[in-house]
Structure formats: structure tokens, C-alpha cells
């Protein structure tokens, strides 16, 4: 692995350039071009195991949202830990999941357009992976059926239910049942279940959100029940009921456990960001979830932030202003800026007091850090940052490093955005 | 080229999946998986020629900022049109520029850390390209000198001057002269000129900004003049004075033309975003620039937006709400959301009235579009969007399509972020 890193060392923006004789590549030793995003592998593995334990305890299946990481090395870990499948957002993402050995793929999105449909047809030809996509519109259902029937294929579709002011999905039961009947009548489609995404509900008021979500989930379960009673799903196969992002999966699991839709139902949740967690919005939502869910508090270990951004102090042009060598090109900035969590000089930890440094602004390749007088900072020091909204940070990198607790590089992994 | 596209068709998220017998891949014909970002090649070529004409008229050299596009196919066009070099932000970006045949590279940034320095050493070993980096700190200057001297190399450095409350760069003349003398004394460095970036000045008040910028430029030129008088630059080589992003290059060119620093000076400006322009912040700043600069109004043709995002109407769940199949994964969203500029159905243009559709929100893979009752919209329709802040949109794609005015694909080009 280390030789691989060194041979490919000029091929990406976080190239490894180790001088060391033992071949060990270390971030703090400046063996890698910074900025770089690293994943602490032990924490990653813990998070993957934690969520699998949680879903096992709830007797639901897990299809982690793969669009978060688009990293086959992580998909494989999730599968190995017991995931039933992977959730994706597009046909291309489905391809990457298939190549990672995933056997059930929920494309939690509509499949639109000739090229996208043809892409999925090729994937179905080339593998035995079961691919599901969502439908919420008759016109789209007809186009899908026409396409897949012409290819002598059948596409597994999930009826999407949505909420007023939300994203995709039928807003009323009558609309949903009419569409389900229509899908049932089409030769190229098989109605395989119901899909929803409650994550669009997210205001400042948790109690209002919980009420709204529970109301939505009740409607989803009632509609699913009615579709079952109307015999709109095939008898011979299990029926999928799937929802849940990383914020409200406790509520979804609760309702799934109480749903009583029969033996033939597979309940699938699709959180994504838990896998690296973060030091921002997902840390907050996880804290809120632990306040709601006794089970989450009892699962051994706990979700923690596995993703860190490492960058140099690049310039110190004014007494309390340091320019840090990372920017919008390197990390998510839409849900809070990366904030320092540790400070190193020549490989050694420097004293670090939370609150004494703050990233206050970000440009394409620079961040502006303000710091208090007590901080002993120098150009060339390495700062480690926690991030917020992992999906967008993953998206910035073609290669990421798995590291141990001492920032030794364990593996270089590819992303496929 | 078309065969290339088809053979590599499943290898990226905007795969071409053409069914057509003539091999012509067309976006409106749904031959490509949407969403996709396209570059209208004729407009791109016009923009490149326009800026070269502008700089020629001002008798300054052009080193377009390459970090905007990170697309060698575009670097080559800029070079062919007469660019003197390319600006970059990092060592890795310098590598991509060198591989594109660029012979002068201004890394408009400090070079920090062992791996980054070693990376640049390798680049210097492997090519004859002249690479300049910036310095604004003695500690960094010493580290650079120590590194490059040990490699038996000399690094060309530019002294960076900055402005209070801005980014990197020495804030005072005395600091700058002291640092220049120090650099002059170091064995591994050659002081090759002065660098600045006035683009950090950008408030709501143009007149105040102009005053500030002109004051800053006066200081830059005075300091440069004093460094020349102090004989701190080598006699035998030209001295670089470089600045200017895409917003204020008219002011910079004016001051460079009047600077009178002697025959030995090469003035270099580094705008980046002009190359594709946009329909947002850079359209606005270009309009403001044309109000200031008679020359800009007289250059033939005009900068126009070359970059467009093409996406499907994916869902129409409520009377005035359409969900569009693109998101934060596909386009910049930090300086205004992509907004519709055209509407197609089955390859045919539909009536389009500006202001009748508006993107109001964006998630990772979806955008929420509100539209007026008069608009005849269907799931599966293609909408074309203008974007704002091209750098961040380029960064979302590993491959882009150059298209003609009818959205026929002319070439697939790689990006190297």
C-alpha cells in the first residue's frame, strides 16, 4: 500500500511525498501535500458498526446512503458489517455501488431521460444487482415502462410519497393509489414498495418537526397498508418500505416497528452522514436524537467525527489574523465553516484551547482564521479542522487517506463523484 | 472523438449513451446522462480572444488564473491565443499546467510544507517551465531557501503585498523591504518580482472600492520602485509585477501602464473567471467594468456566459413547484443559484419568458423551482440554467462537454481538480 501511494504520488492534489526510510507516510510529518482530508479509520469502523447495531436492534434493514461518500472502500465496509444494500441518488452512483459488490440498490430518486434509463438498462444487463428507483408521476412511469419493456427488462419501482412544501413524492393518498394502479398496469414496471424522505422537514422547532414527521409517517404507513390491501404489489416478492436520512431515523424506526404491515415487508432505512458524522450539523442532530432515543444511548461506543481537514498556517499578515491554506475547493462551507480542533508544530501537539481560534471567512483556496493573543501560532504549523456536512467535503476529493490516531496513513482510497 | 465518448460512456456521471446512427451526441436529444455542465465552445473562444485583445491593448501580459477551470484543453486555448503563462493556487495545479505545455507559472500563493516543496522540486527537475511562488514571511522564506538549496535548485519568488483586512501579503513598505532584503540574502531563492491581489476588496460601494484599490496599487508601485532602486532584483532577468483578478483588472492595467518602472519589468494580470464568464456575480462585475472602461466597450465581441447547466424536470408535486434534477453536487450555489435561461421538450425549444421560473432552493441532488401558471412544464422537460461563480461549478465535474449552439457535443474534456 505504501509503495502504491508513493508511485502514484503526483497524481492528485494530496500527493504523498514521503522522504522517510521506513516508508511510513504521516500527515503531521508533512509527508503529504496539504490541505488534505483524512478519515480516522477506527472511528469510521465504529460508526459503521454502531448504526448496524442500531438497525439490528430495531429489526429494520440498512441501506446507507452511498451518495454521502461515493467511496467503494467505505461501501464494502458497510456491506461487511451487515448492510442490506446501498442508497444512491443517480444511475451513475448505482454503477459505482454495483462495482463495489452491493446486491440491493435503492435509487432514492426518479429515473428521468433516455440516457439515464439506458444507463440503468446496461447495469441490469451486466449484473444481478437488484435496482429500485422511485416514481411519483404517470408520465415518467409510462416512459420508464416503454423503455424497459422495449429492452425486455422489468424495472423495480417504489412509489414515492412526499410532504407539502417538501421535495418529490405524491402529496395525497388518492394520487398515490391512482399512480400505483397505473404502474401496476404497465408491462415494463414492477411496483416493489413505497419510498419516502422525511429529512426535508427540518425547522428550528424540534417538537413541531416531530409532530409533522409522525403525521407524515402515519400517512405513509396507512397508504402502504391500503396498497397492500388492493393487491398492488406482487405476491411472490417482499415489499420494500424505505425512508429515513441521518436526522430522524429514530422516529422512522419506531414507526416501522409498530407498523404491522405483514410478514412480507422489508423495512429499510437510508442514513448516510452517520458514517463519518461531523463536528457541525450532524453532531447537533445526533445529540438531539440521543435525547429522544434511549436505544441510541445504549448502543456501545457512540458516533463520532471521523473526517478531519489538515491544513497549514500559510500567512500571518496581521496580529490576530492567520490565513490558512484551504478553501471552498477543499471542504464543505454551506452548513458552517471548518473549525480548528488541534494544533501541531514539527509533528508535536501544541497546547490547544477550544474557542481561541475561529475560522471566520472562506475563499476558494484560503480561509481566514482569527485567534487570541495567547495562541502561539507560526507559519508552517498544521491545524486540524472538524467539518460540517460531510457529503460536500467528500465531493471535493478524488482520493482520501484513512489514518490511525497518530495520523499515519493506513490506506489511500478513491472517491467516484 | 465521438467514438471516444461512447467507449468511455459509463465512466463518469455525465455518461454519453447515444442511440443515434450518425454518432452525433446531442444534449437536447437526451444522449447524455443529465444533469450535465456544458461549455459553449464558440463563446469560450470569443472570451479567450477578448481578454487577450484587452491585455494586448494595455501592453500587459496575461496569465489567466488556471484554478478557475483546471482544464488543460482550456489552458491550451489560452496559451494559443497568446497568454504568457498560467496562474495557479497550489503545487498540484502547477503540475497540471506544466503538463498542458505552459512555460511560465505564477503560483499566486505561498508554498508551505515539506511535501509541497518537494513536489515543486520534482516539477522543476522534470521540466523547463519557470515557476514563481509568493513569499510574505521570513520563516517561510528561510524554509524555502533551505529546501531548494539542499536540492541544488533556486526558487523564483515574488514578494506578496497585501492590504489591511485582506488576505496574505506584507501590509507595510518597511516590512516588505526588510523581507526583500532577507530573501536577497538567502542562497536558495531568487527575488523575481512583486505580487498582489486586489480582488479581496469588494464591498457594496464601488466608488469606495475604487479609491481603496487605487491607493493599494499606488503603494504596490511605490514599493516596487523602491525595491528596484535598492537593487534587490537580479539585473539579468526581467522583473515581474503581477496582480488582478476578474473584477478590477481595468484599474490594475491602467496603473500598470502609468507605472514607469523601467524597461525590465513584465506586467502580468491574472483574471480567471472571464473565460466562461457567468450569469451571476461575474456578469455584474463585467457590466460595472464596462461602465468604467472605454477600452472594454471597444474590444470586438463581448464576454458572455459560456457555461450552462442542463437538467431534467424530475417531479412536479405541487401546482407551482417543480423539483429539478441537479443540486449542490453539480453547480456552484455560493454566489446565487443557477437560474433557468431556456426550456426544451423532445429536443424542441419551448416558449421561455424570463422571470416566469425561479430556482429558490437547493439540496445535494435536487433544486426547487417555482414557476408561474402560464408555464407549460412537464416531467422530463430539459431546462438550461445559467450559473454564478464558475470556479466552483468546474470543481464539480471530472469531465465537461464542449458543445455548439445546438448542443451537439464537440468534445469531452477532462478537469483535474
What does this entry show, briefly?
2 copies of one chain form a homodimer. Chain A has 417 residues and is an alpha/beta fold.
Give the topology, please.
The structure is a homodimer of 417-residue chains.
Chain A: H1 2-7, E1 36-40, H2 41-58, E2 61-62, H3 72-81, E3 86-88, H4 91-99, E4 104-110, H5 114-126, E5 130-135, H6 138-150, E6 155-161, H7 173-184, E7 189-196, H8 206-229, E8 239-243, H9 249-257, E9 265-269, H10 281-292, H11 294-298, E10 307-318, E11 321-324, E12 339-345, E13 348-349, E14 357-362, E15 367-371, E16 382-386, H12 390-394, E17 399-403, E18 409-414
Parallel strand pairs in A: 1-17, 2-9, 3-4, 4-5, 5-6, 6-7, 7-8, 8-9
Antiparallel strand pairs in A: 1-10, 10-11, 10-16, 11-15, 12-13, 12-16, 14-15, 17-18
Oligomeric state of the chains present here: homodimer
According to CATH, the fold-level topology of the domain at 43-286 in chain A is TIM Barrel
Largest interface: A-B, 74 and 74 residues
Output the number of helix runs of chain A.
Answer: 12
CATH architecture of the domain at 43-286 in chain A: Alpha-Beta Barrel
Please tally the β strands of chain A and state the result.
18
Alpha-carbon Rg of chain A, integer: 23 Å
Largest sheet of chain A: 10 strands, mixed
| Unreliable sequence segments of chain A | 1-9
Order of helices and strands of chain A: HEHEHEHEHEHEHEHEHEHHEEEEEEEHEE
Name of the level-1 CATH class of the domain at 43-286 in chain A = Alpha Beta
Q: Quick check: average pLDDT of chain A?
A: 95
Strand content of chain A: 15-25%
Give the class of chain A from helix and strand content and strand pairing.
Answer: alpha/beta
